[in-house]
Amino acid sequence: MNTLLLGATGGIGQALARGLAGRVGRLWLSGRNGAVLAALARDLGALAVPTELAHELEVQALAQEVGPLDLLIYAAGAVQKASLREQGMGDLERLSAANLTGLARVLKYAAFNPQARGVLLGVYPELIAVPGLSGYAATKLGAEGLLNVARKEFRREGVRFCLVRLPAVATGLWAPLGGAPKNALHPDEAAARILEGVLSEPMPEVLEIR
């Protein structure tokens, strides 16, 4: 199973990488932090391809290097807390590159084998509709809309997609918000439950992790 995990250097991404190691034939790991990525790949016997999702040529090169995929997991993401009046356009573009337009670029160039699976780590909309998270909410929910269209467009290629709805998970993504809630899931627990669902047969279109 040729597998690409994007966002592999994040908290959930590293946990997913550890969970995938030894369970898939070839594991490609991609992320922005080249040093962390290289060390993780070395420890797991995986292949590292540092990629900036905001740069189309880098995404295109990534797709060419990994070749046709059996499993694609998009775990990249970014968050920032700022009110609508404070939100800078540059910051919004950064959020979009990680949460939305990066996914669009990956799906534009990725090649898939028959019966391939695509997985997007998403959110519960009601949990992020709070003051200060307009950019995060807009880009994460935009990615969900993109995935719904991808399901229809890629059906002729035999690709199936799963949206994973996640509660709070105790990762560094919460640092700009003052830290994760006390009831947040441990990344290893979240990763185990994600992989249990997306590697099952049939894979659900929506996997809700509580």
Automatic annotation (TrEMBL):
InterPro entries (alphabetical): NAD(P)-bd_dom_sf, Sc_DH/Rdtase_CS, SDR_fam
Superkingdom field: Bacteria
Pfam families: adh_short
Gene Ontology MF terms: oxidoreductase activity
GO annotations of cellular component type: membrane
Keywords annotated in UniProt: Oxidoreductase
PANTHER family hit by this protein: DEHYDROGENASE/REDUCTASE SDR FAMILY MEMBER 7B, DEHYDROGENASE_REDUCTASE SDR FAMILY MEMBER 7B
Family affiliation: Belongs to the short-chain dehydrogenases/reductases (SDR) family.
Protein name: Short-chain dehydrogenase/reductase SDR
Organism: Meiothermus ruber (strain ATCC 35948 / DSM 1279 / VKM B-1258 / 21)
Highest classification ranks of the organism: Bacteria, Thermotogati, Deinococcota, Deinococci, Thermales
